[in-house]
Amino acid sequence: MRYNEFERVMSKTRMQRYLFSVSGNTKKAMRLYRLNLTLSQELFTIISCFEIALRNSIDRLYISQHGSDWLRDSIMPGGIFTCQKCMTTANIIQKALSEIAPNYKHEKLLSKMDFGFWRYLFAQPLYNAGGRVLLKVFPNKPKSTPTMNIDNSAVFNKIGLINELRNRIAHHEPVCFRPHHNSISTAFSRKNYDLIKELYRWMAIDEASLLYGIDHVLKECDRIDSL
Fold this sequence. Notes:
Blueprint: H1 3-10, H2 12-21, H3 26-66, H4 70-73, H5 87-100, H6 106-111, H7 115-120, H8 124-129, H9 152-170, H10 187-202, H11 207-210, H12 217-225
Helix pairs in contact: 2-3, 3-9, 3-10, 3-12, 9-10
């Protein structure tokens, strides 16, 4: 496809950043755009696996702590999320519950919760409401030190970085540039990729075995950086 047609389809505004980063070389701009899409797909796969692993780990823990229908029960009278500070989360659960009624199943309700929901369970009000046990899903988490406190707030922030990357990809934002610049760099993507692997290890999950055959993130990063 000629660049003019490519730009017409993708929009001139969207392509400006790509074109600028390769000094106006239209062939390289199209190649960079396609490589960015491939890297986005690779990262989204890794993030999706992490989200499922995190969700399932939290679910197993809270089933052991609060019962097999803990998510539904959390918003029932006397439930763990019925306090004022947890009202936003309670409303999210209530809306999802209404959408699947009367065919309620715990697994259906669980699947209605997005990545941000699982992240916010580590926020202080929800962490307290859940019994302050949620860090048990990270049995290999390093111990806090006088200079580095690795508590629920630290985990909340780390997951937030991954959620930010996920949202960038979902909204078709590029992951092949240095943040807030027009220069090609996969440092941001590599940093978050390393963070995901670190959190897998904190969860006592062998990420190399889990992602065997589907993880090509670094290969795609190298292709972009060598452009």
